[in-house]
Amino acid sequence: MNVKRYSVLGLLALALVLLAACAAEPEVITETVEVEVPVEVEVEVTRIVEVEVETIVEVEVEGEAMTETVTEQVAVEFSGGGDTLATVQDRGLLKCGGNANLAGFGFLDPDTNEFSGFDVDYCAAVAAATLGDSTAFEIIPTTGTSRFPTLQSGEVDVLIRNTTWTISRDTSLGFDFNPVTFYDGQGMMVRVDSGIETLEDMAGATICVQAGTTTEKNLADVFRALDIEFTPSVLPDNPSTTEAYAAGNCDGITTDKSGLLSIRINNLDVPEDHVILDDTMSKEPLGPLTRHGDNNWNDIVTWTVNCTIQAEESGVTSANVDDMLSSDDPTIQNLLGVSGDLGQALGLPNDFCYQVIAQVGNYGEIYDANLGPDTPFNLARGINAQYYDGGLIYAPPFR
Ligand SMILES: N[C@@H](CCC(=O)N[C@@H](CS)C(=O)NCC(=O)O)C(=O)O
Question: Ligand 1 pocket: which of 118, 150, 182, 215 to mutate (most atoms <8 Å of CB)?
């Protein structure tokens, strides 16, 4: 009995103490505690990448001078993905790997010392998107073999030089490709008076081709598949390849069809004496590329290209872009940064695409300015038409 009475009293006492404690003002205690906060550290990774480099060597066979291609692995320092946007913005200048010898795409005019072409305009577009100034870029000219080490080493921020997107370039060479800006295919040009009408007529021919290109490999594969014997004459750049063909050292010259058209119009004395065969030997999707590992920079180049493509689809041009700022079409509002924070998510001003269109133009304008009906190329859009016109040019949504 006693036991029971004591425990009831004890419980009452405990309840009173707890009530008093609950009613009391909470006491504020200030003390310093050490906590571990996860910190993100940016690490610049430097690795050595093996690159296949093909060197042309002069050899003498039975008293006759010939060239031979030697393929070797060369170690190139890979500067890592890094933060290319910060580098470009600190420098106030975009460094673009380009081409100096391919009129229409990338060409250095020896008289004016100015670069022009379809690829050059895409360098201007990236400069407009990232620096707000389409003139704030410099082209570093590269050849078929020097272009990849130039990008890997960090000498340039982006490579925009009639370069084909292939799996090995995207993976083992350590790059990321962006949207295709020009869908091409490999062709063959011959002299009209040769009587050659198709590749099958080229048995025993000598064919001029440029080193370090997809072209060189496709040529061997296609001719092997057709069971046609040929002799490749592999040369280091466009001028030497074209000169060898023009001098009659080769029966045919092969590269991307756009390249052949450019060579025919710009580098041969009488273009009408040369014909590009109908045969298309490969797929050559051409576009810009960046170093693998800098995802944001790759996104920036990707959405700069997409901006030009969407602008064409939405009817936004360099001439009407200011009026389009008051459009009530949500896609146009997003595209031009009138609504939403799409630019900010890339680390850019929201009007990055407005700057591209106002200063450079939309995809169709860039195409026409360099390759369209008012240029010597007069190259029909073909598969480079917008998807709604039966082509392959298509921008994902600006949402
Ligand atoms: N698209 C092909 C071929 C690109 C290429 O280098 N083409 C040559 C022939 S049109 C060129 O641009 N030459 C200019 C030069 O190196 O001077 C590739 O990516 O390998």
Answer: 215
